[in-house]
Amino acid sequence: MQDNNRLPRVVIVGAGFGGLKVVQHLRRAPVEVTLVDARNHHIFQPLLYQVATAALNAEEIAQSVRGLFHGYRNFDFRMARATGVDWVGKRLLVDGGAPIPFDYLVLAAGAVTNDFGVEGVAQHAFGLKSVEEAIALRSHILKQFECANNDPAQIEQGALTVVVVGGGPTGVEMAGAIVEWFKRLMPRDFPRLDVSRAHVVLVEAMDRLLAPFDASLQQNALDTLRRFGVEVRLNEAVTRVTADAVHLKSGEVIRARTVVWAAGMKASPLAQALGVELGRGGRIVVNPDMSIPGHLDAFVIGDLALGKNPDGTLHPQLAQAALQGGKHVARQIQRRIRGQPTEPFIYRDPGTMATIGRSAAVAQFPNGWKFSGFFAWLMWLFLHLIYLIGLRNRLSVFLDWVWHYFTYDRSARLLVDLLMRRTPH
């Protein structure tokens, strides 16, 4: 029973887009808010690929969680990994610390890389879900160039070949950024190395790229990548990954020491530990108001939630869904506190964008408008700057983009051996 002399306790798991939005919209609410995350920073995931390709430094897309909420008198942060929930006692279980009691729980733990059980992916491929993974990938690529510079015979062994698996927005963005890095900057960094032998291959199991987009934009992305120099393989599935090769279902073997796995994602492992109903991709099935069936004081948002629109379509696993879900859940918690009924969540599609490379992007909107090329690229840049958290980060990223556009230079090219270790997907 809740003590009437204290404020309701709201515990939020995950410092991603959705979790932060809940905190922001509960700032003046009569509640105590505790945000729990295994890392002490928020990551702007849409720009992780630019950290991985040396265009940005990690600090430019990450913000200290504690620093974000200076002045929030009802806020506390716990750096811990959530491991489960005691539903009877209404406590969040964490590793290395005492359980955290709650009156309302918001699960926004996000997603992790999904290797679909393909042999060797966890051991030899790089995901792109964290700063650590992005820096490890960048360092690995730089080390391969250094090795090839010392011994050009290693080029034949796949030292300068990168295979990107997955033709969604992340895979397309990665492939375009890597090939630009190789063509524009690596020849200047390695003047005695035949950088023209560097090779980027994008492998997609479907017959098209960017599945959620209109067919004309899909074709535009395919044509643009090929014009940039990316070898695109459609209708090809990866069956095995080793330290120096990618094995395809067709029987072909691509010699490559760098594999970027962008083929999909699944819900955070936390979902498996909750004893609740799970759906596709391990996501938690939720009620129309985003609460968990049987646990109406617990809500799920973002990539972890399997919610449906009134027409039966699933909420997308996109930043906008997390942001809208965070605002919605914060409002529902306040309605519950006031004794009012909750409202269903309706996702409003603001449009979808993907950048392909320099001066090239695609964008589509619910009203049927479609854009590609330079104008779409400018829209992509502008919107990402708006959503990037922190004025200092926005200014720093903007200046880096301007510098990079006119000079082709990339500032984040330090190779630190300590960062070469892999992080779990």
Our measurement of the CA-to-CA distance between the termini, rounded to an integer number of angstroms, reads: 39 Å
DSSP summary: helix tally? 11
Average pLDDT metric: 93
Helix residue percentage: 25-40%
From the spread of the alpha carbons, the general shape counts as globular
- How much beta, percentage-wise? 15-25%
Question: What characterizes the major β-sheet?
Answer: 6 strands, mixed
By DSSP, the count of extended strands is 25
Provide an overview of this structure:
With 425 residues, the chain is of the alpha/beta class. 30% of the residues lie in helices and 23% in strands. It has 11 helices and 25 strands. Strand 20 and strand 21 (295-300) form a beta hairpin. The longest helix has 20 residues, at 131-150.
